Amino acid sequence: MKKLFIPSVVIFFLWVLGCSNVTGFYFVHPILEIEADTTMITAIIPEGGQNGWQPWDTGVDTVSFSLTVHETKGYIAYVTGIEVKAYDANGDYSASAANIDYIPPKEVEGNGELSIGNIDLYITERIAGDIENADPNNRIGYLKFVVKFYDENVDNYESLPFYVKLKVMYPTP
Q1: Most C-beta atoms within 10 A of its C-beta, which of 16, 88, 90, 107?
Q2: Would you say the pTM of this structure is higher than 0.85?
Q3: Are β-strands 162-169 and 40-44 bridged in parallel, bridged antiparallel, or unpaired?
């Protein structure tokens, strides 16, 4: 009887393990996507000096830009800020065009949207000069928008990046 008991217990445990499905853990969190009403921004930056755009000169253009943020997974998100960085045509980082913090954070309902009013983007001579050096004929670079947020567990995330073309121009005399 003992000889049958031990093998039957082993077979029983193997059968139980074979019949059970192992369930993985999937951590879900909000996903934010950015949408804008335009695909290109044009900035007219005056020269601070006489030798074209220089990183140390004071020429700047302020461009207003509006965004809408959509939550796509059905979870509440709390927007804490927006970061906007400028890149030249080669994808090289130039400078920050805006860094906005929201205190208190703005809430986005699950599957909802948040309309963000006008954001003032500061396109400086440094950004314009970097874009012109990389693309002297067209003077087109890119702005990368990233929304920073946290969920109900206070885990920090960033949105999917959103890109807009940036055309820089000298003022017409």
Answers
A1: 88
A2: no
A3: parallel
pLDDT tens-digit series, residues 85-117: 999 999 999 999 989 999 999 999 999 999 988
**What does CATH list as the number for 31-169?**
2.60.40.10
Residues contacting residue 48 through CB under 8 Å, at least 6 positions apart? 54, 56, 57, 58, 59, 125
Long-range contacts of 150-159, Cβ-Cβ distance < 8 Å, separation of 24 or more = 150/77, 150/78, 150/80, 150/105, 151/29, 151/30, 151/75, 151/76, 151/77, 151/78, 152/75, 152/76, 153/29, 155/29, 157/29, 157/30, 157/32, 157/77, 159/31, 159/32, 159/33, 159/34, 159/69
